[in-house]
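call fold(seq) -> tokens
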Amino acid sequence: MLWLSILLIIIILLSLGGIFYITAFNRLNDLKTKIDEAESIIDENLRIKYDTLIRISNSLKKKIKENKNYFKEYEKLKDMNISNFDMDRKLSEGFTLILKMQDDLGLDNDEELNQEIEKIKRLDEKLCATKNYYNKNTSLENAIIRRFPTNLIARIHKFKIKLFFDGKDMDDEIIDDFKM
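ret:
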């Protein structure tokens, strides 16, 4: 009778351990899926923003009678091997240049240009929200990966600590890794 009680306790403990393992593993997978989806949305919106910027730059080239190509650097962005964070930064610089040119050239009443600028502003809002979502879920996943005993489950399934969208590594010794 004693061995039956011991066997029952072992079965209960193993069942509880299995439930914990499955729950932790599913939580890690859910967060990984959310992060991957956010990355996909960021990629898509950056592509749309890039295409819109190029369309605006071509439109501005026609309106400016100069031979200067102010957007040469931005036209080459697609061919460069840079992170989404760097791409986002460059596209934001390009958008700032467009806004400055619109103001300098007095194109505030250009309906086509204003529509494209509004499109970029909406994309920037989506990007901002998605980056926050990405960073929030990355932070949650990293916290689970660091905590015992879920760090064992993460190690078994090869989950790694992820960097935030801006490429910051909160675990390294570099305290000034954010550049403006």
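Residues 29-156 form one domain.
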